Amino acid sequence: MPCPICSKEPTEKYRPFCSRRCSDADLARWLTGAYVIPGPEVEDDLSSEAEYTPRPPDRDRN
Q1: In which region does residue 42 sit, left (phi positive, over 0), alpha (psi from -120 to 50) or beta (all else)?
Q2: What is the mean pLDDT of residues 55-59?
Q3: How many domains, the chain?
Q4: Is there a domain that residue 52 lies in?
Q5: What's the pLDDT score for residue 58?
Q6: Tens digit of pLDDT for each residue in 3-30?
Q7: Does residue 9 belong to any structural domain of this protein?
Q8: Where do the H-state alpha helices sit in the chain?
Q9: Which CATH number fits the domain that encloses residue 21?
Q10: Higher pLDDT, residue 58 or 22
């Protein structure tokens, strides 16, 4: 199977990629959102986070 980025022969060290450059390019694509795993859309519900008020720490605990 050729390198998924450049189609060269893969090397043992970076398999399935041919080099560190191609491996890093693939990682960058995942991190920037270029690759997407299909799934149901999820709505962001930030309103519940806005209503959250953290509880002050217990002063009696020591």
Answers
A1: beta
A2: 75
A3: 1
A4: no
A5: 75
A6: 999 999 999 999 999 999 999 999 999 9
A7: yes
A8: 20-32, 47-50
A9: 3.30.50.10
A10: 22
The answer to whether position 58 is within a domain reads no
Count H helices, E strands: the chain? 2, 0
42 part of a folded domain? no
Which residue, 2, 42, 37, 48, is CA-closest to 22?
A: 2
Q: Please tell me the predicted confidence (pLDDT) of residue 37.
A: 83
Q: Which residue has the tokens 């090397």?
A: 11
Domain extent for 14: 1-35
What tokens does 2 get? 């050729």
14: nearest Cα among 5, 31, 35: 5
Q: Judge contact between 55 and 45, C-beta under 8 A.
A: no
Q: Which residues contact 38 (CB under 8 A, 6 or more apart)?
A: none
Percent of the chain with pLDDT over 90: 53
